[in-house]
Amino acid sequence: MSALLVLGNAPKSHYYSEEFHRPVLVADIVQGLAHFQNSTFDLRNELRDQNRAVEAMAWDIVQIGRAELG
């Protein structure tokens, strides 16, 4: 089993761009870290500190990753 999860943007139909080859984020599920283009996010601390649902936190980290891609 891989310890990394790479999440990318879904390409629009008939549209090709280098942007879609860059990952939105890479999550290391062993270390509990999400790596973005310019930063790293500690998933365990955020979940514990914010007492948030996993689904809400997942949505937030996707938005952080997209924002860093521009």
Task: Describe the 3D structure.
The chain has one domain (4-69). 34% of the residues lie in helices and 24% in strands. The chain is built from two helices and four strands. The protein has helices at 43-50, 54-69, and strands spanning 4-8, 23-28, 33-35, 40-42. The chain has a four-stranded antiparallel beta sheet. The model has no long low-confidence stretch (mean pLDDT 79).
Secondary structure layout plus pairing:
Blueprint: E1 4-8, E2 23-28, E3 33-35, E4 40-42, H1 43-50, H2 54-69
Write a compact overview of the structure shown.
The chain has 70 residues and is an alpha+beta fold. It has one domain.
Q: Helix/strand/pairing class, anyone?
A: alpha+beta
What is the average per-residue confidence, as pLDDT, rounded to a whole number?
79
Q: What is the CA-CA span between the terminal residues?
A: 31 Å
Helical proportion, percent range: 25-40%
In total, how many beta strands? 4
The biggest beta sheet is recorded as: 4 strands, antiparallel
* Succession of helices and strands: EEEEHH
Output the radius of gyration.
13 Å
Oligomerization status of the protein chains: single chain
**What is the topology, as strand order, of the major beta sheet?**
1-2-3-4
Tally of DSSP helical segments: 2
Task: Report low-confidence residues grouped into runs of 5 or more.
Answer: none
